[in-house]
Amino acid sequence: MKKIIFQIALAAISLSGFAQNFKVPETTEVWEPKPKLVVPAKTHGGAPSDAIILFDGTSLNAWQQSKDKAPAKWPLKDGAMIAKNGTGEIRTKEEFGSFQLHVEFSTPLDSKKAGYPNGGNSGVFLHGKYEIQIFDSYNNEVPIYANGQAGSVYKQVIPLANSMLKPGEWNAYDIFFTAPKFRYNGSVETPAYVTVLMNGVLILNHFEIQGTIQYIGIPSYEYYSGKGPIALQEHGSEVSFRNIWIREL
């Protein structure tokens, strides 16, 4: 009995001391592990030191045709690759889980003349499944439904703002993507989430992606590994792309 009482007393003293420790700043200071060192991009058009360069204006080696995995057919011009009509979608050879993605793009000068649906139409597909729409939405001059304009998760959400630049100027998407997780039986444990900046303006804030993109019908999830490529759409408009890099998270 005395032994039990003694142990209870020791526990009480220990808990009391633990509580008292929070009265000094050292108790809440964590010194390890320190974050890894990353050198930010030093110039416009650069990339952080730990980024994987997907396109630097010189080569399409990181890309392939989505349809048959043949070498990417998009032409290069002035440090950009162009979604030439009829060439088809391209995607990265490498697959990624959660990531930070930077993509710069420019819609053609004749986007307004082309109108819907080909007015600057393209898209960035995350895991090859979830589209961040590209469209000439400058000043809302080319008509399109709001959940299909630039910066939308196509047909799933309307962007918080329209910060699109006019055709011929370079826009930048900074995309922060959290990959979905699936249970052993194929059901969704946690859905995918995405945050997007367009030209430095927050346009999607931790949006819960509802499933794969559907032009007709309701989006839904199908089990896969939780990794996938980055794909760029060719959709009847010769949108240009440059300075594409990714950081795995």
Please provide a brief summary of the model.
The chain has 249 residues and is mainly beta.
Please outline the helices and strands:
Elements: H1 2-21, E1 52-55, E2 63-65, E3 76-77, E4 80-82, E5 90-92, E6 99-106, H2 111-114, E7 122-126, E8 130-134, E9 171-178, E10 181-182, E11 188-190, E12 193-198, E13 201-208, E14 230-232, E15 240-248
Antiparallel strand pairs: 1-15, 2-5, 3-4, 4-15, 5-14, 6-9, 6-15, 7-8, 7-14, 9-12, 10-11, 12-13
Model description:
A hairpin with a 2-residue loop joins strand 3 (76-77) and strand 4 (80-82). The longest helix has 20 residues, at 2-21. Strands 1, 3, 4, 6, 9, 12, 13 and 15 form an 8-stranded antiparallel beta sheet that branches. A 5-stranded antiparallel beta sheet has the order 2-5-14-7-8, with no helix packed on it. Strands 10-11 form a two-stranded antiparallel ribbon. It is globular and about 70 Å long. It is mainly beta. It contains 2 helices and 15 strands.
